[in-house]
Specification:
This protein is α+β, with helices and mostly antiparallel strands. It contains nine helices and four strands; from the N terminus they run E-H-E-H-E-E-H-H-H-H-H-H-H. The structure holds glutathione (GSH).
């Protein structure tokens, strides 16, 4: 059955799902939801009926709609195990998941669209204030992530071990977000090195925001 991804080109959580799909060589139908147009297509009743959280991505497959990018990645990993995004041992798998969650739970939510919109509209911050907020929380998260790479990378080219994992799937979209707020990677040379390597891989290139059909 067709894999259908509800996505937005600039959404970093959608970017994670796109990397996982491309890495596993899976064809999918892309259904763009524009997050800004007319107050956001993700907030329309027909989309909320699919995903009550009003977030992209969501993956439709085999009669279910799966929200949450990491749940999507884990589903793909279970249904389409090759090539794997998780290492073999339970301990290593837990460590990779911990790195993925460090981005997905502790960095990304603080610079998600609705949070930035609230800072601007309700708390009176201008563009500079909003960007400063985003830079602060990304930098704080990257400080720790740099140490995790130092501890767990096997080759300085991947976040964990010597092959692509779920940790890489989460890091690259977060780096894309950091660029949008002019955060230079110079203080985090390990993150910069891993990023340079991963962005050269076909699956990561295919998933890039500016390679998406809905990019404007
Ligand atoms: N934890 C969720 C986060 C999803 C998320 O925050 N998506 C953003 C785009 S990156 C979104 O749809 N934002 C819409 C909004 O804030 O209204 C996941 O990993 O899928």
């Amino acid at each position: 059955m067709t894999l259908r991804l509800y996505t937005y080109w600039r959404s970093s959580a959608s970017y994670r799902a796109r990397i996982a799909l491309a890495f596993k060589g899976l064809e999918y139908e892309s259904v763009p939801k524009h997050l800004l147009r007319d107050g956001g297509e993700q907030r329309r009743p027909e989309y909320l009926a699919l995903n009550p959280q009003g977030f992209v991505p969501a993956l439709e497959h085999d009669g279910i709609v799966i929200p949450q990018s990491l749940a999507i990645c884990e589903y793909l990993e279970e249904r389409f195990p090759e090539p794997p995004l998780l290492p073999a041992g339970a301990g290593d798998r837990a460590l990779v998941r911990a790195m993925a969650l460090a981005v997905a739970c502790d960095i990304h939510p603080l610079n998600n669209l609705r949070v930035l919109q609230y800072l601007r509209s309700d708390l009176g911050q201008d563009d500079a204030g909003v960007a400063r907020w985003a830079r602060h929380w990304i930098a704080s998260g990257f400080d720790a992530f740099e140490q995790l790479i130092a501890r767990h990378s096997g080759d300085g080219r991947h976040c964990f071990g010597e092959s692509v994992t779920l940790a890489d799937v989460c890091l690259i979209p977060q780096v894309a977000n950091s660029r949008r707020v002019q955060l230079d990677l110079a203080p985090w040379p390990r993150i910069a090195a891993v990023t340079a390597q991963l962005e050269s891989l076909p699956a990561f290139a295919a998933a890039r925001p500016d390679a998406q059909p809905d990019a404007d």
